[in-house]
């Protein structure tokens, strides 16, 4: 004991000194302080020397006199003070919250008061922290942007819901508090709940557990459940958030769907088709079945697209996709690979090789007829042909890649030999296809290595043998095969789109020739023009007019020295756009010739609308006009038509004097053909211009 006055009772002394609670001993008879223990010194900062032997009234510990009196009264009344919360003053003048116990006891025959003070600072601080964190939690819970529910941990009943929960799920607090999630019918599949609860108990929490939940009005929401156990004072709760991911799921599903489907028709796209083929090939192999892949191409679809516009084109594609879907079995796949390319995968075919081929052919015929049936598209009555190439698995191959490739090869065969037909893949087709691929590769190289050149075929006025123009004709100077004419490569240039680059080059090259001729004063710009052939794809480019204008201005030549040859069928495609483009070019001074006139529609009404200057009578009529009365009649009719429309005329492919004489009789004096000269290289043409113009002897 810290005081010498406290004698005897060793047990009590040892205990008094060691007690972790602050203790003060006062003799009742004279209210003198007998002792304080080290815990007391530590807690309040007063030393034994400062207190012992002092009257308890002088104790600097008291907050005020009333406080001391209160304890004395309480002691007198109850015999002891139990757990009384108060504050005592420390040596540094701060107030320390304490829980006070005061008892009477006898020490060495003297009645004493033992006062014990338990420090409450930490507990009060943590209680305050709890209050503040609870209020923070309450605010967070209430205003959280996610639906939250506090469940009683033991019973699983709802203790509280936040406003977002009400907003999202439509439940009002009053209707759900005290009930379990099951009782309010939150779970769409209640049988899944036990596993979720089990997981929560096992892991002590849940993180983004997927669940389908029901709103108060029965809508299904895809949610992610996260749960934690929390404790508020003595209460144990489960704090659960129900994140509504319905929209996110919908977007994810849509993105996934879009990745595997064609946006216009909603049919499977190439990716999904490949996947389906792979699946069916594996299945077929296992069960000894066969598949047939039908590759479709709508004949002249581009024509519809161009003449009626893209919205009509889209409507046609949608109609075709519906017809295909309606014609095949549910287990079969109809896919669109883009443009007008459709694929049908027929699966589960049984039988021998020939039999399978027959089944595929029969289905293809049905599909061809379905597509060919007349369709009404936004007031237009249309009828489409289509070509179908077929490949079989396992007869022809056993991979998705080969199946598509072989069916495409068969399709190419159909297209090459006239359209609107069906062809089954045959190995020799592969040879043709690879030759075509080889040609395409070589043509790309030719373009890079500038192997294309132009030859020029003179156009003559038979009355004075003057060269009035030239047609620029494309040639490929092949490093090994020599000069190749366009008949052998033009379709590949067209199909591959290379014609755009090549056509652009032709235009600039022809303008360069005119500039050279003008420089050499070899021509009179008012009576000479170079004609170039324009391919449909080239003409349909949105900046075609600008391309022509640039070619003319870059070379600084008069625009009337350039003549563009377009075909009848090309003019009929999207007539509004055609007329607009022709008119703009016409306004610049460019002239237009209609090539191969007589082989197409030769419609007067169209001709009247179009800003055309010249008709070229196709060589097929000239060839026989001297001995075939029909052809002679056609030539006469064309000439009459041109006269009535006040159009210029030129006959092409004139090979004999008789043909020329016939034409001149009909008052058609302009011609080109072997009778005068075939198309020749630039230098040779320059010489022709310089020479006295005389028709050559009969070719
Ligand atoms: N039998 C016979 N044939 C004659 C006679 N006079 C000329 N020809 C040939 O008839 C074709 C006339 O050209 P086209 O009808 O515009 O027909 C051209 C044209 O449609 C196309 N073509 C040629 N060059 C180009 C070009 O630069 N661009 C485009 N888009 N097409 C071109 O290729 C087609 C074929 O061109 P080529 O083989 O050069 O064939 C040329 C020419 O060499 C003759 O008296 N008798």
From TrEMBL:
Residues 133-182 form the PAS domain. The keyword Nucleotidyltransferase does not apply. SUPFAM superfamilies: EAL domain-like, Nucleotide cyclase, PYP-like sensor domain (PAS domain). Residues 436-693 form the EAL domain. It is found in: Cell inner membrane. Its cofactor is Mg(2+). It catalyses: 3',3'-c-di-GMP + H2O = 5'-phosphoguanylyl(3'->5')guanosine + H(+). One of its GO terms (cellular component) is plasma membrane. Its main location: membrane. GO terms for biological process: cellular response to nitric oxide. GO terms for molecular function: cyclic-guanylate-specific phosphodiesterase activity. Keywords: c-di-GMP. It holds the Pfam family PAS_9. PANTHER family: BIOFILM ARCHITECTURE MAINTENANCE PROTEIN MBAA, DIGUANYLATE CYCLASE DGCP. This is cyclic-guanylate-specific phosphodiesterase. The lineage of its organism: Bacteria, Pseudomonadati, Pseudomonadota, Gammaproteobacteria, Pseudomonadales.
